[in-house]
Amino acid sequence: MSNGQRIAVLLVVGLRLLGPTTASAQEAVVGVWSGTLKVKGMEVRLVFHVEQGEEGLTATMDSPDQGATGIPVSNVSVAGDSVTLAVDRILATYEGALVEGGTRIKGQWVQGGQSFPLTLSPADKRDTAPPPRPQHPEPPYPYVADSVTVRNDAAGITLAGTLTRPEDGGPHPAVVLVSGSGPQDRNSEVANHKLFHVFADHLTRQGIAVLRYDERGVGASEGTFDGATSKDFAGDVAAAVRFLKNRSDIDSGAVGLIGMSEGGPRGADGAHPVRAGRLSGAYGGTERAGARDSRRAGRPDCRRAGRFGLDDRFRAGPSETPLAGRPHGARLGRDC
What we know:
Layout: H1 3-29, E1 31-39, E2 42-53, E3 56-63, E4 68-73, E5 75-79, E6 82-87, E7 92-99, E8 104-111, E9 114-122, H2 125-128, E10 144-152, E11 157-165, E12 172-178, E13 189-190, E14 193-194, H3 195-205, E15 209-213, H4 230-245, E16 250-259, H5 263-271, E17 277-278, H6 302-307, H7 311-314
Parallel strand pairs: 12-15, 12-16, 16-17
Antiparallel strand pairs: 1-2, 1-9, 2-3, 3-4, 5-6, 6-7, 7-8, 8-9, 10-11, 11-15, 13-14
């Protein structure tokens, strides 16, 4: 046998040995894998769903603790026992190796120029489920919850929302919840926290009607979010206040606003044409030049709350969830 023939035989044998190893490794990584990323004292679960497609391996990623699901994995590469998962959307890569007979993948999560150890194991339902949110209200509620629509005639759109109100006829004091920057639904849901649902439940139990709505272009609301200005959003707030003032079961002289983050200035701008009480600081109004009463921005407008007779009800009891970094049991409007 010539040297050339010997080399050809060795190449064929090597390829046969390598092929099954890579193929078996690809089969081994198919499934659901989870691991816990520890970053600066925080723990964040990551879950990878790896599937065998017609053109090779595909995958998606979840971050249950952050409420993110179905993030596409741009590339799944398996060579021998090496596994690489590239998640271009968040500029991250996981580089690991199958260990312990293919029952674990041990490697590094690389993102933002930093590297963190991450070991993946076959996942079960407890690993992939979002964390429990016991503060979320569950029916039956001790109040009425109606699906409503709010017409903004100036913009030519209809907003969809939920009005919660005490069961007796009223008229009741009421507030509109105004969300912050970014497209938000009526619950202002972030990382599986339904913030506005919790707020509405607490306030309605204290006798205050609450209107929360999907922002324009979000959920069941009409319109387009992209390109909308602060003036547009303020117009939506004003339309929501008018909606409440025109209801017989709402005290038209006791309608206020609670804004979260950017919702503070939006609420202030929307309050002017409809003379609504601005309780924007109850969850973090934002100080800005030119805002009326700007010295009080970021704090509840206690004078208006008192004028509308809402102060005792806002103080009436502990919330079921922390508010804006306050300790558990913080009271709505406790700064008044």
